[in-house]
Structure formats: structure tokens, C-alpha cells
Amino acid sequence: MTKNDFKVNSKVSWLLGLSGGILADGLLRILTGEEGNLLVHTMVFGFFAGLVYLGSRLVLRLLTH
User: Fold this and answer.
1) Which among 18, 17, 13 is positioned nearest to 59, based on CA atoms?
2) SS3 label, residue 2
């Protein structure tokens, strides 16, 4: 894997992680029907963003080798 591939994979992982966090937080807001506690929404966003980020890094690493 070249240095350029690593940069592209990193950017893709960040974008997917951010999207995953936004989607999870949005789904929580839709399911609960209210704005809710900011700390809870922050934790949900952070957890799912990290989870999707790490998962996408693993998948992209496996696909490029």
C-alpha cells in the first residue's frame, strides 16, 4: 500500500465514521421523538463514529492487502 493509498483510506474512514455517528444520533432522535440529553447524544455519536471508523479501517486494510 502506497502512502497515497493510506491517505485516501484514512479520509474515507473519517468520512464513514462521521456519517455513522450522525446516522446513529439521528436515529436516536427519531426513535425517542425528542431532543434529549446532550451528553447522551454526544456519547452515542462518539461511540458509533469510533465504531464505524475502526471497522472501515479494518475493512479497507484487508481489501488493500
Assistant:
1) 13
2) coil
* pLDDT tens sequence across 44-63: 999 999 999 999 999 988 88
- Return the DSSP state at 34: S
Q: Count Cβ atoms below 10 Å from residue 50 Cβ, excluding itself.
A: 13
Torsion sign (Cα): 15, 21, 23, 26: negative
Contacts of 58 (CB under 8 A, 6+ apart): none
35-45 pLDDT, tens digit per residue, is: 778 898 899 99
Give the residue from 34, 56, 38, 36 showing the smallest Cα distance to 46: 38
What pTM was computed for the model? 0.83
